[in-house]
Amino acid sequence: MTKYEEARAELEARLADGVQFLPDKPEETPASTLRALWMTAWGEPVSAEAATGVTPPVLDAVQAGRLDELIQRRIDGEPLAHITQRQQFMGLDLHAGPEALIPRKETEILARCVVDLLRDMETDGHAPLVIDVCTGAGNLPVAYAAHSERALIHAADLCDKAAGLARRNVESLAFHDRIDVRVGDLLAPFEPERFHGKVDVLSCNPPYISSGKVKAMDTEIASHEPSLAFDGGPFGISILQKLILEGPDYLRSGGWLVFEVGLGQGEIMARRLGKDERFSRVETHADEAGAVRVIAAQRS
Q1: Residue 4: which region, alpha, beta or left (left: phi > 0; alpha: psi -120 to 50)?
Q2: Which residues, in sequence order, are CB contacts of 236 under 8 Å at separation 6+?
Q3: Which pLDDT tens digit goes with each residue over 66-113?
Q4: Which of 57, 89, 121 is the C-terminal boundary of a domain?
Q5: Range of the domain at 79
Q6: pTM for the complete prediction?
Q7: Cβ distance 297 to 281 under 8 Å?
């Protein structure tokens, strides 16, 4: 029996009793959390998902003490991804931190939708032009680049610290020749003369929680992740409204606007886009529970 196996049951029980595991991060369990913290204490931090397939090494006394500190930080409410500084998204282990929203599994619905569109566009040798706004940690752009051979991607975030984290992920995955990260409000960083009418896919995972509900979110989220990543205005759709207003000018004919929506927003936003003459086709993509979480609208 290894040292990890000897300690595992007791430490997992400590985590199970002390941590409120949130449904928006289903990959985090007492077992996966312990493995991720164990590897971090050893000096090789990995995400909860990546840790699942790892055989934890033996820790020396200093590392064991470090593990105890990391477990207590998690019990005190600090997000696992902030402690390990890693989060997996679309099979990629990314840098994570308080600078930006921690990538969620639900956003992989958006990523897969865009990747499918890009692969269809690449069948004739075309190199799709993509813009991703509210990019946060840059998880969507790097996922597009990892799963699409030719896409050229421009990303932007209002927060310079978030953009810095996105650039770290771009560099660590060696996508700097295909992804450009800018700082600015939504589409403002993209000059009209270069981008208007030329973009194949415009994507966005916007803030979509109403302002009044942001502070009422779970403490682990409200106290550690940036409020800018959640606050979507009085009704939660301020950014979405601006995106729908400005986005079509950037899309080529047949190009796609693809964005994530909050629970309860999907049907309303889809109906609105269905009445918009600038779009000829509107598709919805649901989560496992059947709730619409992503909308894709094709430019007329």
Answers
A1: alpha
A2: 207, 208, 209, 210, 213, 262, 265
A3: 999 999 999 999 999 999 999 999 999 999 999 999 999 999 999 999
A4: 89
A5: 3-89
A6: 0.94
A7: yes
